[in-house]
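Why does residue order matter? Because the sequence determines the fold. Keep that principle in mind as you read this record.
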Amino acid sequence: MKEWTREELYRAVQESDREELRQLHETIKESPWRSDFHIQTVTGLLNDPNGFSRFNGKWHLFYQWFPFGGVHGLKHWYHVTSDDLVTWKNEGLAMKPHLLEDNRGCYSGSGLVKGDTLYLAYTGNNKDIHWVRHPFQMLAKMDKNGKITKSQVPLIYEQKGYTEHQRDPKLFEHNGRYYILLGAQNEQKKGVFLLFTSEEIEKGWKLLGELKVRGYEDFGFMIECPDIEKIGDKWLLLFSPQGLEEQGDLFRNKYNNGYIIGRMDFDNLEFIPESEFCELDRGLDFYAAQCACQDVYPDAAIMTAWFGCGEYKTPVTDEQGYSGLLTLPRMLKIDGNRLLQTPVPEAKKLRGNVLFEAKNGSIVRDTMHGLMPSSCIMRLEDPDSESVNLNLFSRPRKNGFMISYDKFRKTLVLDRSDMNNQFNTEFGAERKVRLEN
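Structure:
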């Protein structure tokens, strides 16, 4: 395994690196682990989605990017676009750290569309000569021609009374005012939300205070990647709390990502929950979810996330020098106090023809052998058996990735403990979720 020096980890992309990056891309594109459908890194490491927006007739999405290897080094923003949320085009480097305020990385942030401008709020990660971190909330603007200009002056400076962990600004508008919701850690090492407001996007920001969430005053040691969306007459608060204790089948990952449905009281700086905190995804690899700034679906939110988590590694990280996918976009709707998640309608474009149908209890193992494409959809209608088991990527003496459903317990189980490539085993290899009607 390569040992990275500080100089290697904090290397910014230069024009002279073009040939090196081309060669890195040529190497990793031959990897058997490359995805057919997901947004994936062109080189190096991809993590959080950033600036997800519908702007100038296209979907724009950025991701955290370290270009030179599958490790968490100096973070840049990489830009991809799509007409349909399904087929994505690589647009190239969007932002690199070159200001004093972001000298150690352009960290995560969000997008807000106003007229002919896409505003991008992000955290500038500064470290001084003693290697002490100082966070700044920064702004960049993208015009209709795709040109991005970074502001030289922070929107928000480092806040006193909190640790160095202040990041991931969610920029949004409500009732004619602009707001930034920021994840932070107080001096008691508890995760908190900070809410700022301004009458103008580019200046005049002031701290309103901590956004209180009833019943969640002590919920992890840090809040990352906050997002807030209004869907119908409800508010959806998404965030990634770090430091939750495992509770049975809940909160099994090192870091978790979830939501609360409720009401937003701007006057009293309070979010009033009408649901419990629920994980957005009960799988093994999901973090830093972000919803798009968009008006295509006025009664829904469109969400993607990092198909990874914290300090996790995958088989390709060290072996092939790259890491990172984003999840396929999902549509979020609220029904009462329940969040409904479905693939975006455009995902149907990925479907091919029907390969076969197996009815009346037919065994499909031999039928499917050798026919499996890179993806497929299976529909089981009221199975008679007590359980259904599906093995993917199985080999002799290896069951591969197992998906099972217990009809009477209404429990879906994912199990990768018998896969040929084992990774992140310290966080377990099985996840369970009860499926409710």
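Residues 351-434 form one domain.
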